[in-house]
Amino acid sequence: MSDTYFEFGTAAERWDRARLFFDAKEYTSAARILGGLVEEVPEQVAPRLLLARAYYHSARLVRAEGELRAVLERDPVEQYARLMLGRTLERQGRQAEADTQLRMAAALSGEFAPASGA
Predict the structure, then answer these.
(1) Which domain holds residue 28?
(2) R_g of the chain, CA atoms, integer Å
(3) How far apart are CA 35 and CA 54, in angstroms?
(4) 92 lies in a domain?
(5) Is residue 111 part of a domain?
(6) Is 84 within the bounds of a domain?
């Protein structure tokens, strides 16, 4: 598939196409579309979050981490981005960092973990 296909259409049409690819578990194709979309509208959280998910599911964990950190720079209380960042760090074997993000995600969702030794 040519790169032109991934760049064709309005931002809304590319968003719809990226979601179709993502839903079909074609994560690499979804990421190709979303990468251009994120460059075009960097202030939008949803395309960047879906891009991070596509990277995560295609095992491009360093890229997923970068996109999730970019989301959290814009919106530090984005609970799902915190959860995903924690899971991404876990998959990279960075458990201590993951635990911090997962605790913050739990706190943001209202699910507090029991205190140690309780």
Answers:
(1) 3-76
(2) 16
(3) 10
(4) no
(5) no
(6) no
Question: Closest by alpha carbon to 80, among 48, 116, 109, 111?
Answer: 109
The token duo for 80 is 């799902």
**What CATH number is associated with residue 18?**
1.25.40.10
Question: Is the residue at 87 inside a domain?
Answer: no
Rounded to whole angstroms, the Cα distance separating 112 from 4 reads 47
pTM (predicted TM-score): 0.86
Q: Tell me which residue has tokens 């699910």.
A: 111
Reported for 103-109, long-range contacts at CB under 8 A and 24+ positions apart, including other chains, are 105/79, 105/80, 108/77, 108/79, 108/82, 109/79, 109/83
pLDDT tens for 83-98 read: 999 999 999 999 999 9
| pLDDT for 62 | 98
| Dihedral angle sign, alpha carbons of residues 105, 107, 112, 118 | positive
- Which residues, including other chains, have CB under 8 Å from residue 29's CB and lie 6 or more apart? 1, 6, 21
